[in-house]
User: Which sequence fits this backbone?
């Protein structure tokens, strides 16, 4: 029992290397502000809101839970400027290793062609990253009294701090090609944690690795009511990498007289880790989707192939803009 507890403790702090990496989402196409700040404003409307929830490893340990919200608005003063930002709260493991991040973002649009067929966007984000854990939730070797772990005994461990807050920033760019309402291609690159903030808890300076992101997605009409939406994403952070490839299919139930409804379903593969399926529905300005990860990494023995659920919701607000009609008054002598 003593050895088992000690091994669990070592595994927890070994996993700080993984926790030191940024969070990830399965439905990355439906969390655009987190993916790349240049995605801010890349929608048809005036305001866009997203909410995402991820719950994983419930079959292995205390579930890892991540909640995120984002908002975007197009500037009324500068036509090509959009502003936005995201907030997320991530909690992992018995020690409630918590990451809270708030990142305001802005993007600027450059038209590469007069008809807006080719568009280029640059984006910038900056904000804070706060991390903390509860050391009292762990048991240490020195607390073994020969029969059981006694929390009243000293841990003989000294933490300089159990909380740390840092400034962090990132940047990105996207290219968009649009041939029609249902035929488009978007690709982007981003670089995050550029200042490499310190995330150490033991007095030693441990810098957070920069994260490189590359993504591409497309939309192509394959039938009167059918579209295919393939996408890929690559994340590289330090010695860790993640590559995801897959596609959604969309079936348009109704698109006429101002009414719009569509169903989505698809599947994705995350290299050397998991596969997942997803389904969703669009109704007017609303989107709602759910996905489930099926784990096949080396952890599948403990997870029994169960990864976790992820939910996403989106709402786009379009404000009414009355046309500025200029009335001319005919002179009396006509």
Assistant:
């Amino acid at each position: 029992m003593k050895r088992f507890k000690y091994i669990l403790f070592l595994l927890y702090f070994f996993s700080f290397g993984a926790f030191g990496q940024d969070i990830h989402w399965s439905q990355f196409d439906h969390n655009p502000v987190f993916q790349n700040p240049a995605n801010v404003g890349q929608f048809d409307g005036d305001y866009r809101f997203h909410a995402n929830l991820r719950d994983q490893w419930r079959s292995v340990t205390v579930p890892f839970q991540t909640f995120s919200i984002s908002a975007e608005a197009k500037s009324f003063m500068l036509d090509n400027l959009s502003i936005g930002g995201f907030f997320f709260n991530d909690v992992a493991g018995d020690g409630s290793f918590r990451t809270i991040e708030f990142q305001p973002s802005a993007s600027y649009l450059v038209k590469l062609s007069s008809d807006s067929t080719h568009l280029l966007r640059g984006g910038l984000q900056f904000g804070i990253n706060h991390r903390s854990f509860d050391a009292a939730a762990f048991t240490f070797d020195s607390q073994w009294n020969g029969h059981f772990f006694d929390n009243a005994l000293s841990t003989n461990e000294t933490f300089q701090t159990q909380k740390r807050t840092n400034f962090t920033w990132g940047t990105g760019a996207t290219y968009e090609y649009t041939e029609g309402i249902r035929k488009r291609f978007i690709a982007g690159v981003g670089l995050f944690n550029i200042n490499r903030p310190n995330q150490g808890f033991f007095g030693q300076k441990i810098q957070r690795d920069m994260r490189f992101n590359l993504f591409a997605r497309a939309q192509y009409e394959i039938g009167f009511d059918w579209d295919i939406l393939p996408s890929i994403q690559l994340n590289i952070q330090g010695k860790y990498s993640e590559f995801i490839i897959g596609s959604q299919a969309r079936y348009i139930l109704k698109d006429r007289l101002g009414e719009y409804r569509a169903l989505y379903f698809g599947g994705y593969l995350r290299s050397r880790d998991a596969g997942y399926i997803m389904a969703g529905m669009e109704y007017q300005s609303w989107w709602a989707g759910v996905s489930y990860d099926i784990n096949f990494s080396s952890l599948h023995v403990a997870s029994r192939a169960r990864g976790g659920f992820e939910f996403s919701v989106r709402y786009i607000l379009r404000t009414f803009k009355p046309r500025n009609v200029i009335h001319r008054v005919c002179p009396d002598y006509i």
Notes: Residues 1-19 have pLDDT under 50 and may be disordered.
